[in-house]
Fold this sequence. Notes:
Blueprint: H1 2-5, H2 11-16, H3 23-31, H4 36-43, H5 46-50, H6 54-63, E1 69-74, E2 78-83, E3 86-91, E4 100-105, E5 108-109, H7 119-128, E6 140-145, E7 150-158, E8 178-185, E9 195-196
Antiparallel strand pairs: 1-2, 2-3, 3-4, 4-5, 6-7, 7-8, 8-9
Amino acid sequence: MAALDSPWVPLYICIRQAAPGKQQAVAAMWASPLLRPFVCVAFAPEQILKDMNQEERIEDIEARPMLYEISELGAGGMASVSQGGSMWLLRRQAAPGERLLPLVIDGDVVFITEADIEPKAVEAIKRHCPWLMLKAHYRFWVFPFGPDGLAAVEWMVQPDGRASADEDGFGMDDGVEVILHGSIGVEGRPAGQFRLYERK
């Protein structure tokens, strides 16, 4: 696109408008020591971020934490790291290759299978929002690790219909709230089945 050829167009416009044939130019900008800090803070190229391997991702988290939502979880340097619909468990003290464990990738929950969810909860998802099975499009939160070595997880599969309403109450749909609670260990695996949360 012409935007990439014009020195007068701001860099972020170049990146946002980059056509597939211009990805090499965007990558060159990303690789430049002078341009990369600006690119990261303002409009980081999403595809380049997605294509990072584990060690590149960890290096990027450490060098540019402003691109990520990082929550410290205790347990000797554990943290949850979120960016662009994905979440990882960062284990700073683990061996290379095992320091970054994926929990959610592009909205897909990848650390469990349907078998790790109690049958009652599976039934609720299939009845009210089957398109959201093993999806994390809403709240997905990992709490700090406790003395038992487990961290609680709250996963809102679907909010209730009020979430789509405006401040006057218009636009509310008939969605049924589905929230799962569970726990994970420091290895990023579920400790028992995820259960359906029921308000009392």
